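Researcher: For the record, we're logging two predictions in this thread. I'll number them. Prediction 1 follows.
Model: Prediction 1, sequence and structure:
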Amino acid sequence: MATCIHVYSEVRVNGEWCASERHTYNEEKPNRFGWVNASMRRVQCPEKYPFYGLLLDGARASWPWSFHQRGMPVDVSEEVQSVSDSFGFEGYGHSHLTLKELMEKYLELMVSGPEAKELMVYLRQLIDCLIGLSENHGDVRIVFWFDN
């Protein structure tokens, strides 16, 4: 039962994933999904459990288009690993997605019918926040997990 999502963006620089305050945002309010864009302006999306289920199959919702859990990436940045470790056993559902994958999912949702329209709105907000962090969309990713 996911009630709070923690999302960090990472950028691959010289072959290594890194996160910094410029690229990272942790939403502490339950039932909210938040992130920042490159200039640290906060972009808030209200409680949207259906969107949680798109990012991770079974996290409050399940869709034919849901991503499956991947776990924490083996090459996660030290900053994000440290924050994740601080949640201990309360953090669960760890996963990661690249900007390229998010954009491909957006295109898939465009042809998936009316039930996907709401999900497209939230996914577009997330994509807009990540665009511009790197010219290569495969070099930008979100790392996220849930807690109660």
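Researcher: Logged. Prediction 2.
Model: Prediction 2, sequence and structure:
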Amino acid sequence: MTIMHLQATVPSLGAHKLAWIVGTSAHPADDIERFGQAVGGVAMFDRVLSGEVVPCAVMAAEIQLWSMGTIQRQDWRRPARGWWGDRPTGWFNPRVPAAA
């Protein structure tokens, strides 16, 4: 089982969208593993999610590819609105098929 450790406040729109991608995934552990492959290690997942690490341009580009465009490069510098449980601003997830 995979557990996300979330701070009380959402550090950025990028972190908010990252949590929603993994939280709405049918296979969250696989998504975290793939995230780690994209950015240099699974341990980076918690650091990015907490806001301890703000992705540089190269890492942000890798995350944008990994997320299929859901998390844009500039999202890491944008403040999040609301709390972790609130749908992120501009939320869409191409990784989840639309309901019929």
